[in-house]
Specification:
single chain; 248 residues; mainly alpha; 8 helices; 0% strand; globular
Length: 248
């Protein structure tokens, strides 16, 4: 015994917690979103700011602003889609695109809330509605971004099949980013996403079926809505078959 105290064991370094910081940790995320234009910019540049504001009281104004902006964007894209055939499609296509997106979201909203609850989410109904509004807004903004490309092809080809495939590809890309925003809203709550993935499949199926239920989005017709009920796969198969027969 020499009277010296034992050397204490070294303290292991503190490992910072992994994962994104909580919503509202940055002051910019707490800034209100006063208008539809601000909502468009925020969802493109600061999606966390939108997600934070949807959790605050008075988020109804933001939800309405996002829905209004999504409606305008859908009408713009539908107008460009209507230039392929012209005539009545210049007003019919915008109306059908806007109504199709809104109806798809409204039809799938109850199942989303139920799946969220079953997955253990604590999100309020208003917040779930806001996430769907953000999905529609981001989706339609991307469609407007694709609109110049659509216009070029609509003025340089007469193939309905080619244009339909182009719209389908652009629609799927836009939907992917919209669903990614929706998923981020639940992930930041640390909610389990099992039920959410099932809902995403349902939403995609409803959207593609809506393209058939509201046909024609391309081409012309004597009636605004079809008189015959069809499944979207059957409709697409018939369109490809008719197009191939017409080229013979």
């Amino acid at each position: 015994m020499n009277g010296t105290s034992p050397t204490p064991a070294p303290v292991p370094p503190t490992i910072p917690a992994s994962g994104p910081p909580p919503l509202g940790a940055h002051p910019d995320e707490q800034a209100p979103i006063p208008s539809a234009v601000a909502a468009v910019e925020a969802i493109l540049r600061q999606p966390r700011r939108v997600l934070y504001q949807l959790r605050q009281t008075g988020a109804g104004r933001l939800i309405l602003a996002m829905l209004a902006a999504a409606l305008v964007c859908a009408l713009v894209y539908g107008l460009v889609m209507g230039t392929f055939s012209g005539g009545t499609q210049l007003w019919a296509a915008p109306v059908k695109v806007a109504l199709g997106l809104l109806f798809s979201a409204a039809i799938c909203l109850p199942s989303l809330y139920i799946f969220a609850c079953l997955s253990g989410s604590t999100a309020r109904l208003a917040e779930v509605v806001g996430l769907v509004a953000g999905l529609l807004l981001l989706l339609t903004i991307l469609l407007v971004g694709f609109a110049p490309v659509v216009w070029v092809f609509s003025q340089s080809t007469e193939s309905i099949i080619a244009m339909g495939a182009l719209h389908l590809v652009f629609g799927l890309i836009a939907t992917y980013f919209g669903l990614r925003f929706l998923n981020a809203g639940f992930v930041l709550r640390e909610d389990r996403a099992g039920g959410l993935k099932v809902w995403m499949v349902i939403f995609l199926l409803v959207m593609v079926q809506m393209t058939t239920a509201l046909r024609p989005l391309l081409g012309t017709s004597d009636t605004f809505l079809p008189k015959e009920k069809k499944f979207f796969l059957s409709h697409w198969t018939e369109c490809v078959k008719h197009a191939s027969e017409g080229q013979r």
